[in-house]
TrEMBL record:
UniProt keywords, alphabetically: Kinase, Transferase
InterPro entries assigned: P-loop_NTPase (IPR027417)
Organism of provenance: Nitrosomonas communis
Name of the protein this chain belongs to: Adenylate kinase
Taxonomic placement: Bacteria, Pseudomonadati, Pseudomonadota, Betaproteobacteria, Nitrosomonadales
GO molecular function, one term: kinase activity
Length: 183
């Protein structure tokens, strides 16, 4: 099963998938940016533009198809953004890209904007745009609305998780029929 985990930058997708995959060897997680880096594509904030983000999407589609093939029989969690921040502003990813990824289920990670701002300011491993609390709140709401507009009526199972609710995500996975094996 291929599960898309959406959320804006800094929300805690990687933290959550690391904790989940450390305990369950039937799951594998990959970031869209890691797939793009394998294709030598720019993914760092300061090197992005709307043109580069658009060009990267075909590589993501091809790269994820290869990743799925390489990990056949495993449950994959793909960390995704439907809006990407660049130095020139935000770029919305075309919904067709997500169709080509052939996701079986999706989840959106949403946290309190104050906590999100704090997490982003403490994360020195990534360069991100300076953003006010109000703009961050708006960005997260836009991303959530885009997610709901895409998946609410599409027939693909979807869930919205508040904060890094690992047990909630695992319950959702179990409801989809994903079996877990512990290392």
């Amino acid at each position: 099963m291929n599960i898309g985990l959406f959320g804006i930058s800094g929300v805690g997708k990687s933290y959550m998938t690391s904790a989940i995959t450390a305990e369950n060897n039937s799951l594998i997680a990959v970031k869209a940016s890691d797939i793009l880096r394998a294709y030598n594509k720019k993914t760092q904030f300061d090197g992005l533009s709307s043109n580069i983000v658009s060009e990267n999407q075909q590589s993501l589609i091809e790269g994820f198809a290869y990743f799925r093939e390489k990990n056949c029989g495993r449950n994959i969690i793909l960390e995704l953004h439907n809006i990407i921040e660049t130095p020139d502003g935000e770029v919305e990813i075309d919904d067709n890209v997500f169709d080509f990824l052939e996701l079986d289920a999706v989840c959106f990670l949403y946290i309190d904007p104050e906590r999100l701002l704090q997490q982003r300011s403490k994360d020195s491993s990534r360069i991100r745009q300076e953003i006010s609390l109000e703009n961050l709140r708006g960005l997260q709401e836009r991303s959530l609305t885009k997610f709901l507009n895409k998946y609410k009526c599409q027939g693909i199972p979807y869930k919205i998780l508040k904060s890094s609710d690992i047990s909630g995500f695992l319950r959702y996975m179990k409801s989809l029929g994903v079996l877990f094996s512990v290392d």
